[in-house]
Design goal:
Layout lengths: L28 E5 L13 H12 L1 E5 L2 H4 L8 H24 L1 H6 L3 H27 L15 E4 L18 H5 L2 H6 L2 H12 L1 H6 L16 E3 L27 E4 L9 E2 L17 E5 L9 H5 L13 E5 L1 E3 L21 E3 L3 E7 L14 E5 L3 H4 L8 E3 L12 E3 L6 E6 L3 E2 L13 E2 L12 E2 L2 E8 L5 E3 L2 E3 L2 E3 L13 E5 L4 H12 L3 E2 L1
Helix pairs in contact: 1-8, 3-5
Length: 529
Amino acid sequence: MGRNTRKRRSSMATKAIAASAALALGGGGLIWANFYASAHESNNNGWSQNQTKAAAAQVATISCPDVGQKLTNVPQNARQGVATELANLDKQITEAYARLASTRQAQAGDSGFVQNAIVGPLKEKRAATIDRIRIDIQRVGGQFNTSLSQLAACTTQNAQTNAGQNNGGQQQNGGQQQNGGQQQNGGQQNNGGQQQNGGQQNGGQQNGGQQQGNGGQGGNGPVAADFVDITKVQGNAQLGVGQNGLPANGNSGSRGTFTTKCGTNANKNHNTDNVIVAPGVANGAHHLHDYVGNQNNDAFASDQELAGASTTCQNQGDKSSYFWPVLRLQNGTQDFDQNADGGGKEGNVGKILQASQAQIKFVGNKKGNVVAMPTALRIITGDAKAFVNGNANANVNWSCTGFENKVQLHDKYPICPQGSQVVRTTDFQSCWDGQNIDSANHRTHVSFVQADGTCANGFKAIPQLQVRLVYNVPAPKLQNGTVVNPYAVDTFPENLHKPITDHNDFINFFSQNTMNKMVNCINTGKNCQ
């Protein structure tokens, strides 16, 4: 039975106009305001004819710095209060979007309206909220970086400009020094050119084309530039983005494996929460997740509840939670969440695809033995906001069966040949600080292995989680600069369903006996399950 509704909370009331609203976790992101942001609005006569005009005159974005990722040192006793205030920043962005989308006539007649009536007041609200974060931290004796107060201001830009502006320097988070070196990925990938498409599609082709039967996303992607025929791509099979997501295992060191079979979410266990980043916050992810393994994971689940939950894993010693954003086919069909928060209300529409395979495997480290993971260890890999934030935390691989040893894509969705399936692969961080099961920005307590397999900064090697998801996806068709029947991963609306935003989450709830067995198998070169 799917757990798509929960009695412990009421649904957030949002207007249909929020179809393209950007709610970035941690109070950062782009508000993407399409003139016809919602196909449900009244008075939409002549809808498609007016789109081009709307695109030219009234498509705009509001870019807000990601406060949550800057908070790298929050005392444990302040974290729930801080999480609540970060949720308030999200709400403020939502309200600003709603005002942006509902004042079109005023904006057309006053070039200063957005700044004076929306962006200016938003800055004031954000400043007050950031100050409450300061109070929460200092109240328990923590140190607050006063420069964070400068993150209150948001900026505006025309949608045709590079909304992927990449805030690259902003993504210092992760604390993994090796990430810094690969920051050039942010420039290399940039997704900037794709954003140009995102902008023009927003007003014209995307709404016009997809709304006419191709599962339109209200202008928030994907677009033709997000796809590539994998048979025409020059071979590059390296996994990960830059130094993120390199395989930890090899032909030396600890060479064993531990495989856990937890199904493909056939029971349709979905929600739009993220208990790691936004505990206690309904719809904290703003996109839909597939859950396998632990069956009690939602925003309100305590570690005790997770530890006592049922599991879909065949090995009942594995009650860990494995979750990732759903993949959807935009073929004009509607799924159960068409009118729900995190679903259709926030631009995530189309038919949810169930993976045909979900392979979950733990491997060792080519430099030596691994140590056990602590109970309730949380790992987020990849960045759901990488299109906005830049690639410092990106970790994504797209390919097709039969091509995985030849081509791995990061900023493109593959169009697979007949008989080939779409593959999402993720190799998690596998270096642990030896002390913490989480960190303030949910990044710095773990890191990726370096190219030679070593863990920097005295971190300890732990089993590396490797997830491989396989999907039967009808091949999209590229026609006249448009994409017909595309597929896309669920995203925050402002990230335009870009493939670079794919990510994966894990919370360890292996029993101690099963964890010990895993470590022994890996360190002694056995293949176990």
